[in-house]
Amino acid sequence: MIDSKLPTTGTTIFSQMSALASEHQALNLSQGFPDFGAPPALLEAMMRHVKAGHNQYAPMAGVVDLRQQIAAHLQRYREVDCDPDGEITVVPGATEGIFCAVMASVSQGDEVLVFDPCYDSYEPAITLAGGRTIHIPLTVQDFAIDWQRVEDVITPRTRMVIINSPHNPSGAALESADLEHLESLVERHNLHVVSDEVYEHLVFDNRDHHSVLQYPALRQRSFVMFSFGKTFSVTGWKTGYCVAPPALTTELRKVHQFVCFVANTPVQMAIADFMAAEPNYPATLSAFYQRKRDLFCSALKASRFKFTPSPGTYFQLLDYSALSSAADTQLAKNWTREHGVAAIPISVFYQHPPQQHYLRFCFAKSDTVLLNATERLCRI
Ligand SMILES: Cc1ncc(COP(=O)(O)O)c(C=O)c1O
């Protein structure tokens, strides 16, 4: 036996619900991944590079061509200049990037602010770095940040703030006023930021994504994480990147080189080719996923669920309070068995779950699956 460093951590809810969905042959709208293929040109590029023998270690910071494509992408979509050598690091998934950023910056006893409901990898990373996670709930109505509450919990030990926009599981997206608040806060209190922007291209109803990179004083203190898995529908390729100023990038890479050393070579080369050939592809994603969100939501108008169409991500929260008063985790399991639709309970993303009755459904699924799922949900 060893003393666990993460004694309260078990199997993630994503693994649990996906296993249950497969056991009961339920429609799996729980875990966040598309059930449709990636762009064919991307898959072909991957095979080409594997067959061409590009199967050995890449440079530690990432394949040079890919880092150049990322810089061009950031210029195109966010109008910011980023140095591919000193500011961009390719990582094996945003999760690894977040882990390395936290490990590089958080020391024993440091406090890190997160907003509940929050993505489940943040707290274990903070704990393993010796830090303390300070949970601040988002507002119950619209999952917004209450900036006064943030000011109130800051102490001399506060070192970092982790934000996520568009937000998993609620879909909420930060406004420019939020980033201005954050910018002022981190300057006054000398804080660092991890900005998890893996759903940057999935924003709906003509919204703009506001990136931390577009706020110069904020950018100077931030590690900003992106995921090719989300953008190119290849979550299993586990590849993303971190943008941070040179001094932060140096420290991130010191950790990254001993956690993973490098991301997968042929994947990086294939993504670089695809980005060069199809620079407009990410711009098509909002319309693509908005149509799926609307299909899902309009089919649910006949149900007793209450909801507001999601502003971003590929998740839709449904309030089931008119159907059941059961706790969300138990209900998600029961409905997977009884009604054949799997979803994610959101109480698991809170330190202190409020009195809410939400399940999270992923609409990155084929239209047939979405319509079958809504038919079943309308029958409940
Ligand atoms: C908010 C958020 N951050 C990070 C990740 C992980 O991204 P990756 O697969 O690139 O590690 C996810 C995946 O679901 C996510 O929802």
Describe the 3D structure:
The strands form three sheets. Strands 2-8-7-6-5-3-4 form a seven-stranded mixed sheet, sandwiched between helices. It has a three-stranded antiparallel sheet with strand order 9-12-11. The protein contains 14 helices and twelve strands. The chain has two domains: 13-31 and 283-379, Aspartate Aminotransferase, domain 1 (Alpha-Beta Complex); 40-279, Type I PLP-dependent aspartate aminotransferase-like (Major domain) (Aspartate Aminotransferase, domain 2, 3-Layer(aba) Sandwich), CATH 3.40.640.10. The protein has helices at residues 13-23, 40-51, 64-78, 94-105, 122-128, 147-153, 176-189, 216-219, 228-231, 246-259, 265-277, 285-299, 328-339, 367-379, and strands spanning 27-28, 88-91, 111-116, 132-137, 158-164, 192-196, 222-227, 240-243, 315-319, 341-342, 344-345, 358-362. The longest helix has 15 residues, at 64-78. α7 (176-189) links the parallel β5 (158-164) and β6 (192-196). Helix content is 40%, strand content 14%. The protein binds pyridoxal-5'-phosphate. Residues 32, 93-95, 119, 164, 168, 196, 198, 227, 229, 235, 238, 240 line the site of pyridoxal-5'-phosphate.
The percentage helix is 40-55%
Task: Provide the number of structural domains.
Answer: 2
Question: How many DSSP H or I helices?
Answer: 14
CATH class of the largest domain: Alpha Beta
Instruction: Examine the secondary-structure arrangement and name the CATH architecture of the largest domain.
Output: 3-Layer(aba) Sandwich
CATH topology label of the largest domain = Aspartate Aminotransferase, domain 2
For the largest beta-sheet, the strand count, sense and barrel status come to: 7 strands, mixed
CA-CA gap between termini: 46 Å
Strand proportion, as a percent range, falls in: 5-15%
Shape descriptor reads globular
The ligands found in this model are: pyridoxal-5'-phosphate
